[in-house]
Fold each of these.
Amino acid sequence: MRRVVRESIGLIGFRMTLRYLAIYLLSYKPFSDKSYDRQHETDTGGMVPTSELDIEDEATKWQSNLYLGSPARVTRHLVRSLDISCADYSFIDYGSGKGRALFVAAEFPFKKVIGVEISQALHRVAETNLAKFRGKTSSEIELWRGNALDYELPSGNLVLHMYHPFGPDVLKLVLEHIQRAAEEEPGRKILIPYLFSIGVAKAVFREYPAFRLVRDELCVNNLYRWTLYEYKPAGS
Ligand SMILES: C[S@@+](CC[C@H](N)C(=O)[O-])C[C@H]1O[C@@H](n2cnc3c(N)ncnc32)[C@H](O)[C@@H]1O
């Protein structure tokens, strides 16, 4: 922090540095928000930077984004906005980390809730958290450890939640995988709420027009701007 302050003063001056520091100190810091864990006696908080994720393959690692749990309120808002009968859908969280979005989705409840996570360490934390939820929800929750690229989607209607889990190279391959699965089972509904929908992710979705943008919501905190895509191939 000292280094940041020192170098900022050199770059933007003392007064401007002070203003930005005040904004930072007053801002909401999601990585230190323990409200969900206090209520549920879980461990879903904190942040794990990409450099500390236990992913052996270097290329995959640098296409992975850091771990940060979605605030429960945001996940609830996303799910309610879908305006669906959740019991008719499976909810899959691509990059489920310690599992917070899964546990919140299970409140609705969905037919099935599945977490897909590449990090063994985060997967283990999610398993411990899940043990505390058994018996508290009627949703069946399943944790799948591995690369999202290798995950085979279940049949039926799907909500595929993504909190900006990976970089564009992996996102492209995942969308191609989803598209193939959709083509093999025509008629089912596939919805993708994408949280932290920054330009680079939107640009990837634009390359796959079968995923139509149906909602684009802004937030003063950029981390929570989100978009909703629905799989609707041309002519459907
Ligand atoms: C921003 S966190 C999302 C946390 C969680 N979805 C939530 O909303 O609480 C992104 C997660 O994606 C995981 N991830 C990154 N690349 C992945 C990949 N190729 N396959 C599976 N998970 C991946 C990271 O390990 C990290 O836990």
Amino acid sequence: MDAPLALYRRYRPDTFVDVIGQAHVTGPLSAALENNRVSHAYLFSGPRGCGKTTSARILARALNCETGPSPTPCGTCESCVELARGGPGSVDVIEIDAASHGGVDDARELRERAFFAPMKARYKVYIIDEAHMVTTQGFNALLKLVEEPPAHLRFIFATTEPDKVIGTIRSRTHHYPFRLVPPKVLGDYLLDLCALEGVTIEPTVVPLIVRAGAGSVRDSLSVLDQLIGGSGPEGVSYSLATALLGYTPDSLIDQTIDALAADDGGTLFAVIDKVIDTGQDPRRFAEDLLHRLRDLVVISTVPPGAIQGLLELSGDQVERLSGQAARFGRPELTRAADIVSQGLTDMRGATAPRLLLELMCARILLPGIDSSAEGLGARVARLERRLSGVGEADHAAPARSPSRPLAPSPSPSQPLAAPPAAVDLVDASPAAETQPARQAAQSPAALESNSSEAPPAPVEVAGLSLVDVRQLWPGVLDRVKKLRRYTWILLSQNAHVKDVADRVITIGLVNSGARDNFLSRGGDEILRQALIDELGVDWRVEAIIDIPDSNAPSRTAREHAGPTAPAPAVAPADERRVDVEAAKEAIRPTRNGASKPAATHQDDVSEVRDDDEIVDDAALSSHDLLARELGAQIIDDIRHDSA
Ligand SMILES: [Zn+2]
């Protein structure tokens, strides 16, 4: 038994109605046929594989149908049958591949033959494919013919490069530009084909094929053909598609994004290692990462209701990505996308793409060294989130952070008079920066828990590393969703897995409001149950406030005091408004030298991110910090004292 014909040949359309994604061309052509106003020469241009030659054949068939010319050929007359898909072809419809027959001699021969009347059909139709390959002399030889053809003659030039068709010919044709087929249209078409073929295909595979086909129907069908050929009885699966097409599996991209969001360099570089180990192409990985970042930018920019149609994602993917987007600020996302995009350009032709990939990721992690406007934007966004994290429990203003659409309404406590403006900045920032020094000094336990977190590389616990848990997290979230929707919303929008160690899973929530809501509503118990159900592990659940922000060593230190010393993770509102003097006071001992807390603090910083520019935090005053982080100029020192 012969193998079946390739898909794109079996499903080549016979009528304009069946041509997908080119309505702007097929519509007018059908109308011209309907009204019998067909021109004597056409130029079909457009990218390859999007239907130019096919449309030329359809046009020829429509012209020569006995009942025509008609946009809907009868399909039964001799000409129709001959020119149908799989038919023998007609002597009066001549296809010429100009790539091999574009010389002046070929053109002269064509010219001589063209004057003879058609054998059977109404018109003699010349379809000249790859018309840009016709030489200038060849075109000149055809010029007169195209200009004043005999009544029985029709020309259709098809080309990917209309600019290379000489102007004198082009001006005598009707030019129809074909376009790449939109992903949505192509995706639906592929699904229809699979249904016709009786092939099972995972819906997530379709966007991959569409991407691989890059808008070309023929290329997409070839890819689909290959996947169907390589699939087993269970049909075309996602894993088969990513492996065959060389795409980075979603899980690797997820891990990368998680690591970037958590500012977790260790995991990030472990993922890159895995990318190389599993034989993925670094460039492809960067491309896929860029694609994901783009999706995240769209999600963070467009209101949830309007997203459908903008992204080639299923509903639950959108949900998962919303969670990821919520953990970045928009400036951070666009900046990361810029860096990856630039990195991709640099990688072209590079001999060590892995190196460039790693440097690229390092740059994303380090907005601190980036003095460009984007870098500053990313830093300000981080600070803003940090501040909103501190203040949110007090301000009834969840709208302050657009990147967290579902931020739970904060618990009502004494509202602060000060707006989240300059005063707040001045107050909160040094407070946050100085707390670690204090905490560290007070609680040695903080040190311990902190240092246990120090190596960010995957930590093996009960066979499950941090990376594993992050990877399995969507499943855990699904369990949570079944148990209690409220907790699920909290976790999926505002939380990430911070750490896994010693049968304790640490969940980082973006602000104190989220954390309090999580704990007060028994979220930890729900999550524990979900972990048992999904992963089969009975772990204690710790919830900390963690805004992914390496510039805040304080946070890590302070929050990690949480698990050991239950209460103090969130300081009471008053304490948060530590005034500048108190903040300075707290820093002073660390500045003054070799006391133990100073060393501790230095450690904290280097553990969180040892290549950060603020390693020397301890030596900075709050003013310096503000100036450096925000570009602030402190003009009135006395005001704070009186405040
Ligand atoms: Zn017919």
Amino acid sequence: MQDNSAATAFEPFNVTLRDGREVLVREIGEQDKTGLLAAFSRLSADARYTRFMAAMKQLPEAMLEQATHPSPEREFALVALAMGPDAPSIVGGARYAAAPGSDACEFAVTVSDDWHGLGLASRLLRVLIDVARCRGYRCIEGYVLSSNTSMRRLARRLGFADVPCPDDATLRVVTLKL
Ligand SMILES: CC(C)(COP(=O)(O)OP(=O)(O)OC[C@H]1O[C@@H](n2cnc3c(N)ncnc32)[C@H](O)[C@@H]1OP(=O)(O)O)[C@@H](O)C(=O)NCCC(=O)NCCS
């Protein structure tokens, strides 16, 4: 049984990355639609493909709406914001979602290309793991392209098992018991 009573209790926090740059990590909200579209437009074609497993030129409105309105009962989503010259911009995001009644949730994480290798995805995923555990999930898993060595190494470093996906030879399933 999941306990989402902590759904409003997530406190934003600052993270100093490996190169000294700082980001603010907070829950996603309706106000992030424009920032999310801008972040998506800056992603390389490769990064879009590895995240969505499809060639996507634009983020469809329905996905944008869903992304910025996570269901408090079974979803949780974070954005990482960097201060730009004018306004903060989204440089990373991570989320999990669970099917109704399930004690397992599925994560996804994306970091802007010019912010790779600084520990941001690791940090976001650690937070997701903690939140999922606190809310009563027993397992967190992700579907990752077999060729996505960066994501697979990161997941293994955090203790995830990395096994072939039974339905698709191009995919791996990374799973962590909580
Ligand atoms: C996969 C992805 C999320 C990784 O993001 P990231 O922020 O670069 O990840 P991290 O910085 O936490 O870890 C990546 C590397 O940096 C290294 N690193 C991070 N912090 C470090 C530190 N403090 N000291 C030394 N090395 C460090 C890690 O060792 C890791 O190296 P490795 O890939 O050789 O094992 C990013 O490449 C991405 O957004 N890809 C496109 C979307 C995608 O594939 N998402 C996954 C499917 S859900």
Amino acid sequence: MTVSGGQAPQPGAQPARIGPNAIIRVGEALLALESAETADRVFATAGLSHYRQNLPSEMVPEAEVIALQQALRAELSIEAAGAVSRDAGLRTGDYLLAHRIPKPAQRVLKWLPPGPACRMLLKAVANNAWTFVGSGHYGFEMGRPVRVSIAQCPICRGATASLPVCDFYAGAFERLCQILVSPRARVRETQCQALGAPACQFEIDWRR
Ligand SMILES: [Zn+2]
């Protein structure tokens, strides 16, 4: 079964927007793993210095998220940029668990066996995909392993790299799956548009 979602319910030619976690949590991760100076530099390179003092409280233009990810890769090594991006994804997962995913739904997911819980979680994610993939397209396919795909992925847009770079999504999915599906869940990006793949693909596995 393939389920897809992600096209924003946006009228006309409005530019795609993404939830502010993709900015706020990257800032937090830079402070945690790098330094305030590095955070200043990365945000300046992205043209987003104003967010260092005033964090966005509403959805931001997709172009800002793309610029911030490009700045991470420009200012840091690809490994360090990946670590920051992944940490930002984990923090986004924590935020969603604390503020966005209703507690009764979380109890149901934790009670279900991993397979059905994962299916229900990814279905719920599909309904909200437009808030985090912008103009991208989200889909998933249950199986061993479970596969999530994001075409026209905003995180790696414009990137050419020697390894997958969409650690932000891998981190967010991993945190959600570890809490709601199985503590053994691991998520890795196995195909990335930055390496020429037609879509970014993530594998979720809790059976290893
Ligand atoms: Zn990717």
